[in-house]
Amino acid sequence: MSRRVVITGMGVRAPGASGTEEFWDLLSAGRTATRRISFFDPSPYRSQVAGECDFDPVAEGLSAREIRRMDRSAQFAAVCAGDAIADSGLEVERLDPYRVGVSLGSAVAASTSLDVEYQVLSDAGRHWAVSPEYLSPHMFDYLTPGIMPAELAWRIGAEGPVTMVSNGCTSGLDAIGNAVQVIREGTADIMLAGATDTPITPIVVACFDAIKATTTYNDDPAHASRPFDASRNGFVLAEGSAMFVLETLEHALDRGAPIYAEVSGYATRGNAYHMTGLKKDGREMAEAIGAALAEAGRNAEDLDYVNAHGSGTKQNDWHETAALKRSLGHHAYDTPVSSIKSMVGHSLGAIGSIELAACLLAMKNGVVPPTANLHEADPQCDLDYVPVTAREKRVDTVLSVGSGFGGFQSAVVLNRPGGTR
Asked: pLDDT tens digit string along 318-333?
């Protein structure tokens, strides 16, 4: 029999939220945390808004050496990992290190530090030939994404499987899926898993400007992210991280750990179609949803809530709506759906894990978070998207889905086993 995997701890850093409690307060109130970019002068760019985190590494307990060595995204992950371990009640020093692993997701890894170092080495782009005398001694860490999960492993003494997952915007779901598979196969008993991204840099903003994927509602940053709304015109770039402790149900029960949820189903599919394009019928996402539900032993009728990818681009919201109809049938119209990107923006590889945190909190509090800024629904997006205001509802089983550049389509099913918090 396959080992059952549960989540017993989490830590979150998101726009407008320096911890799990603030994160839930923001979501349940339907507040938005998107604003005009303050990290650099955004005026030359097409899209000038973002979901920035007010993150102070010193206040978060990181040392001067850690701050110098670690990219901003790694700092986020380290802080969230510490919160998740504390929340879970694990005494990591008493664990068998070979039975503990790390699975971290990120789409653009150390892009913050790479951007800064390029500015220094090229003298703000003035020189094609850069001088090595200005090279940071930590450049190797920034160029090698695998250093990030290794950093987390060093911090907790994990000597089991340590993996970096970089599948674009599904990385946060896929890192969790990978961790679940590692535990189920018996390679590890405990996994620290989640995702992090801090992509609010000139180069990343310029990249999304070039393909016109981000919003141009620069005069109204708080209402710029409008998933499923008829007036939407692109997503709002953001940053953030969420980390979790995953362990076998047996291990959690043996140590009396409070349990958020069981990760009962996971699946991912590729569309083998286009780097950024999506087929209108949503078939690949529907396939992932169907496979995840089958693995979880659940039917469409069992779902209490769907946490949508809901990026706020025209094609994504049409694609996702079609996928939910294709996979859930008539029950798609009866199930509450919402996108928290309307409040915290789209943090690329991190968002899947941040959305899973929202799902866990929805289950814990019996509240479905809303889709903020949804005032005039697109006629082609005709499901129950929980507009503007949160909705009280008992949530026992949740589906969270993600869609990423490269054609990645992923789905995770969470459910409430006996003895959950």
From this structure: 999 999 999 999 999 9
Active-site residue identified among 223, 346, 359, 381: 346
Residue 136 lies in a domain: no
Q: Of the given ranges (93-102, 119-128, 290-299), which has the lowest mean pLDDT?
A: 119-128
| pLDDT of the residue at 418 | 62
Distance CA 166, CA 187 (A): 21
Average pLDDT, rounded, for the chain: 95
Among candidate residues 53, 309, 319, 381, the one labeled active-site is 309
Q: What is the pLDDT of residues 156-176, one digit of tens each?
A: 999 999 999 999 999 999 999
* Domain range for 61: 5-110+145-405
Q: Rounded to the nearest 10 degrees, what angle do helices 72-88 and 111-121 cross at?
A: 160
Residue 117 lies inside a defined structural domain of this protein: no
Max Cα-Cα span within the chain: 64
Q: Tell me how many domains the chain contains.
A: 1
Q: Which of 53, 80, 169, 359 is catalytic?
A: 169
Give the model's pLDDT for residue 421: 40
Contacts of 96 (CB under 8 A, 6+ apart): 189
Catalytic, 138? Answer: no
Establish whether 80 is a catalytic residue: no
Cα-based distances in Å from 411 to 61, 238, 285, 406: 34, 21, 8, 16
Using CB atoms within 10 A of its CB, is residue 288 exposed (0-12), middle (13-18) or buried (19+)?
buried
pLDDT by residue (tens digit) across 178-221? 999 999 999 999 999 999 999 999 999 999 999 999 999 999 99
Residue 127 annotated as catalytic: no
Query: Residue 401's beta-bridge partner residues?
Result: 411
